[in-house]
Predict the 3D structure of the following.
Amino acid sequence: MNRLYLMLIGRRMFQRIFVLTLLCIALVAGPELCLSAQAGTQVRDAEIRQAVEAFVQQRTAGLGWDIHIDKFYISGNPTLPDGPLAFEVMAPQQWEGWGNISLAVLVRKGDRVVRNIPVRVEVEALADMVVTLRQLDSGATITEADVALQKRDIAEVRGRFACKVDEIVGKRTKTTIKANMALRTDQVEKVPLIKSGQMVTIVAENESLKVTVTGRARSSGAEGDIIMVQNLNSLKEIPARVVDANTVQVSF
C-alpha cells in the first residue's frame, strides 16, 4: 500500500515538473516562436497575393487600363508545407479581369496539389472615359463643352463606355443623362442628316463617268449610313450611302 502511494506521488511530481518545464520554455522562447510562425504565415499570404496579382495583370494585359487589387481576402487560415511551392490561379472563363470575383488558388509542391485555397478579390480597373459635365436631355446634340475625358472605374459602366471625345461630339443622346456620368456607347446615336421623305441627289460615279439623278429618301440616316432611296426617273428603290444632308451615293 505504501509502495503504491509512493508511486502515485512520484508520477504526480513528474507531471508537475514536466508542465512547469513547458511553461518555462513558453515564457522564454514563446514570443520568438509565435513571431516566427506569424512571419511564416505572412510570407505565404504574400506569395498567394503575388500569384493573384500576376494573374490579374495577365488577364487584363493590352487593355491600357490602370489595374490594382482593392480588396484581397483569403478564406480560412490555410496552412502550407515548407519548401518551394507553385501557385496556379483559377477563375471563371467569362471573367474579364475586373470587379468582385472569387478565385481558386491551387498550391502545388512538385507535381502534387497540396491545397485548394478560395480567395475573394475586388479588382479596380481605371480607364479614360468620356464624362458628362452637365445634364444632357434626351435628343440633345453633344458639343465639346458638354463632355470631358476622365479616369473612372470600369465597374461603373459594366465595360461599355466611350473613350474618345471626338467619337461622341456631334452625336445625340437617346435618353436624359445626368451630370458627372460616364457615357456608354449605347446611350448616343448619330444625328440623321437625311430624313425619310426628303428629296435627295443620287450620285453614281466611277473613274470615267458621273451620273446624278433626283430621288426621294425612304428612310432616315446619318453620314455613312446606308438608306433606301427611290429613283424618281425609274421609280426603283435602291440602297445608297449618305454623303451629306442632300446627297447619297450608289455603287456604279
Remarks:
- The chain has three domains: 47-125, 126-189, 199-250.
- Helices lie at 2-59.
